[in-house]
Amino acid sequence: MPDPRLAREVIASPFAIQGLTVSYDHRPVVHSVDFVVPPGSMTAIVGPNGAGKSSLLKAALGITRRLTGEVRVFGRPIEQMSRHVAFVPQRNSVDWDFPARVIDVVAMGLFRDLRWWQFSGRDHRRRAMESLGRVGMEAFADRQIGQLSGGQQQRVFLARALVQEADLTILDEPFAGVDAATETAIVEVLKSLRDEGRTLLCVHHDLSTVRDYFDHVLLLNVRRIAAGPVAEVFVERHLQATYGGRLSPVQLARLVGSAAEVGGR
Ligand SMILES: Nc1ncnc2c1ncn2[C@@H]1O[C@H](COP(=O)(O)OP(=O)(O)OP(=O)(O)O)[C@@H](O)[C@H]1O
């Protein structure tokens, strides 16, 4: 049962952190961050290099234990909810020499489902092929994963997340190193998941696409600078605070256009 003391907003949220601090050698790289991801949103975590974005994700996913604070998935500790969470890692963090066929990599997503033993091998293959179809990669099902291009590998990892049918999918820089066509294809898949009511949380680097791709954003630079709807938060003063005043007036004009600054937190 969810803890009755938790705020309703946290219980309803697919992903909420409270007072999250991550430290290496007693140095906080994420400091006391509160953040609630709205259900059915496509939310970006944005900040400069070294801002703590990956550390926040690693702490949230239990990959590092150097944290204090709370991480909740629908109000419960994430360890109890891992079946509801899919993760697409950064492509360069994966050993692509690992000998595995594309179809097997995708089907591995099913083994996080506690009921995997109820499916036959044929069910696994059918579900994995459906997911590969959604990312346009069914023709590559029997290829070795290491023989694919970077963009194709990224699509396969997205298919592996899709097969889990998770309520929350967390992606670490899904557009890094992919071409424009692949980026568009991935965005379309992510938006279709959002339209099905699922929640997407992405570490994202390209400030120029935040407004087009995302509806909510966390601006992070060790501390939370601002979080909320993109239209409210992705504004000049918060961007300057996040990037330490390093964005030029021309860059800012391109990013926020003529949109009026309407506050944010
Ligand atoms: N294992 C580690 N040990 C010590 N320091 C670390 C470790 N991992 C990350 N750091 C430090 O923590 C800080 C935040 O790193 P992190 O990778 O979380 O930032 P990021 O926002 O994801 O950066 P980028 O945009 O460059 O990927 C950096 O100063 C980094 O050097």
Automatic annotation (TrEMBL):
SMART domains the record matches: AAA
Keywords: ATP-binding, Nucleotide-binding, Transport
Domain ABC transporter: residue ranges: 15-247
UniProt cross-references to InterPro entries, sorted A to Z: AAA+_ATPase, ABC_transporter-like_ATP-bd, ABC_transporter-like_CS, Metal_Ion_Import_ABC, P-loop_NTPase
Domain of life: Bacteria
GO molecular function: ATP binding; ATP hydrolysis activity
Database matches in PANTHER family: IRON TRANSPORT SYSTEM ATP-BINDING PROTEIN HI_0361-RELATED (PTHR42734:SF5), METAL TRANSPORT SYSTEM ATP-BINDING PROTEIN TM_0124-RELATED (PTHR42734)
Family: Belongs to the ABC transporter superfamily.
Name of the protein in question: Manganese/zinc/iron transport system ATP-binding protein
